[in-house]
Write a structure and sequence with these properties.
- This protein has about 325 residues and is an alpha/beta fold.
- About 30% of the residues lie in helices and about 15% in strands.
- Strands 3-2-1-4-5-6-9-10 form an eight-stranded mixed β-sheet, with helices on both faces. The protein has a two-stranded parallel sheet with strand order 7-8.
- α2 links the parallel β2 and β3.
- α4 runs parallel beside α5.
- The radius of gyration is 21 Å and the shape is globular.
- The chain starts with a strand and ends with a strand.
Amino acid sequence: MPPWLLVTPSSRGIGLALSRRLLRTTQLPLVATARSDLDRTREAILSPSKLEGEDDLFREGGQGVVDEGRLTVLRVDVTDESTIEAAASTCARLFPPNPKSPSPSPSTSTPTPSKATPPQPPPQPSHLHLALLTPGILHPEKSPSQLDPTTLARTFAINTIGPLLLYKHFCRFLPRKPPTTPTTNPSPLLPPTFSSPSLNPTTSIIASLSARVGSISDNHLGGWYGYRCSKAALNQAVKTFDHHLKLRSGDRAMSVGLHPGTVRTGLSSEFWGGVERGRLFSPGFAAGALVGVLGGLEVRGRGRCWDWRGGEVVP
């Protein structure tokens, strides 16, 4: 079974742009998710119409048409754990992490050595090679008087608890440490057949979409209480989950955070006018930049948050 990719959610904005890019720059199966209208999400991902920031995907006749069979769209609402669990169960059927070797067929006689069937290599386990977790919501409180418990709870439910639940249910698909013996070498994590500049060749990555405003040391303006706090908590979750992966997977899997910059999506639309010229990005541009960062990220960069240029966002 080949490795596979996950983008959740994928229905719009950066998630949609990431799904479109990975489907066109790799040969791996892609699982995309949406809360509702799965058919519309599928159509948007497969659409041959070029989006802003996708010029590199459509050069010289480009990637307008892709293999639809590599795309699976599942329902996930990160505030409803049952949908996450159901999606993970579907992925386990599509991409078994621990395939069983076929049982020998019953026979009434034992074949002679000359006619014996040569032993078949055991089936290779599939693994989740890249997961991009993109849920996000912003309520820009400017003063403590605007803080509302219900709004804060929803902000944390989507921005922080959602990724944590995705870690919970999709961690099992990441590769484990290889067996270490003096006479064997672990098989390559990403077979050469599937190599791509969009994919890290040595390490599986779960990347959570964070934000620079989640940095405590970089907080020079205040405001945005719920969003800042939820993203700071997400950065802690990224680091804590990465410690788990060190023990479970060694260097074969890592967790990181990503800061895409200010992207022209509904989440940030209220603030476009105040963005410095040249720093308001299309989702297509942001997706290309983030995928490029992940493709070249070394394992020593694990557990940290990286921006669209490949610079670290300090806690």
